Amino acid sequence: MITRRELLRGLGVGTAVAPFLGNLPSLAGGAATARQRLVIVFTPDGTVRDNFWPTAAGSFTAPSEDGSGPVALRPILEPLAPFKDRLLTLKGIGNKILGDGDGHMRGIGCLLTGVELFPGNIQGGSDTPAGWSSGPSIDQEIARFLQGRPETATRFGSLEFGVLVPDRADTWTRMVYTGPNKPVAPIDDPYQMFTKLYGRAKNRESLQSVLDELHEDLARVAAALPAEDRRILEDHAGLVRDFERDLARDEEIASHPVPMLEPGVLEQNDRMPAISRMQIELLVAALAADFTRVATLQYTNSVGQPHMKWLGVDEGQHDLSHEPNSNADAQEKLTKINTWYAGEVAHLAAKLAATPEPGGDGSMLDHTTILWTNELGEGNSHTREDIPWVMIGGGLGFRSGRAVEFPSVPHNRFLLSLAHGFGHTGLDRFGNPDFCGDGPLSLG
Amino acid sequence: MVSPKARVLLQILAAAVLSAGVVGADEHPGAAIYREHCLRCHGEQGKGTDEVPAPLVGDRSVDQLAGYVHDTMPEDDPTAVTGEAARLVSEWIHAGFYSALARERNRPARVDLARLTVRQHKNAIADLVAGFRGEQPPVTAERGLRGEYFQGRDFNGQRRVFERIDGTVNFDFGVEGPDPERFEPGRFAIRWHGSVVPTETGVHEFIVRTEHAVRLLVNHPDWDGPPLIDAWVKSGDDTEYRGTIHLLGGRAYPLRLEFSKASQGVDNPVHERPRHASIELLWRPPHGVVETVPERALIPARSPATFVVTSPFPPDDRSIGYERGSTVSKEWLSSVEAAAAETAAWVRSQAGRLAGVKPDAPDRGEQFRVFAAAFAERAFRRPLDPQVRALIVDRPFAETPDVDSALERSVLLTLSSPRFLFREPPASSPEILPWDTAARLAFAVWDSLPDAALRDAAAGGRLSTPDEVAKQVRRMLADRRARGKLREFLLAWLRVEQAPEIAKDPSRYPGISPEVVADLRTSLGFLLDECLAPAEGPADFRRLFQTEEVWLNGRLAPLFGVDLPAEAGFRPVRLDDGARAGVLTHPYMMSVLSYGAATSPIHRGVFLFRGVLGNVLKPPAEAVAPLAPDLHPGLSTRDRVTLQTSPVSCQVCHAAINPLGFALEGFDAVGRRRDTDGSAPVDVSGSYIPREGAAVSFRGARELAAFVASSRDAEEAFLQALFHAEVRQPARAWGGETLENLRQAFVTNGHDIRAAVVDIMKVAAFPPVPSEGEPATPATEERSDDHTP
Question: What ipTM did this prediction achieve?
Answer without folding.
Answer: 0.75
